[in-house]
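The data are passed on as follows:
___
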Amino acid sequence: MSKQSAVAPMNLRMTVYSALFTTLIIIGGVNIPIGPVPIVLADFFVMLAGLFLGPKWGLASVLLWLFLGVLGLPVFAGFKAGLAVLMGPTAGFLPGYVLMVLAVGLLAGIGKPSWARNTLALIVGNILLYPPGILWLKMLLHLNWPTVLAAYLLPFLPGTVIKIVVAVALGQTLLPRFKQAVSEASWQPANDNDEDEQ
């Protein structure tokens, strides 16, 4: 079997999975408004994108989501869209999603998969998510640090912990099957033409 014949089906399947996670991130934009920063599940699906797809394809799913939003499709939290969102209260969290999916994908992919490594990857990813979002809110709303942290960080931490626990549980249950499915998709029996080429 040639290298190209092995890579093509895997890339196709990963493209489909990446688009699927983009869809999940969009669905996760349904929010519970509690102020300028709503409670959403988009960050949860970004975590899963990094965990399941790795840094390359996980990043692709997040960038596609951002691209669709900039184009004007209602894919952001609360089904908002357009460049105006990039100047709104949640704008700082958008680059945070990019940092999160990269960190989760890179750290979870090091060595043999384990719940401890996945947990560490998700914690680091969330640590990288919040600073740009909190800093942007502080500057936009002209708040001091105690106020912005009390209003826009601490109330979200319990939910973040729950999302991490659920993501780790899903990783332990589904990730081995997912990787096996991807691996099997990258293998195809060699046909007669391939044998002749070899």
In short: The first helix runs from residue 3 to 27. The domain at 3-187 is CATH 1.10.1760.20 (Arp2/3 complex 21 kDa subunit ARPC3). Helices lie at 3-27, 42-71, 93-108, 115-141, 145-152, 157-185, 192-197. Confidence is low (pLDDT under 50) at residues 188-198.
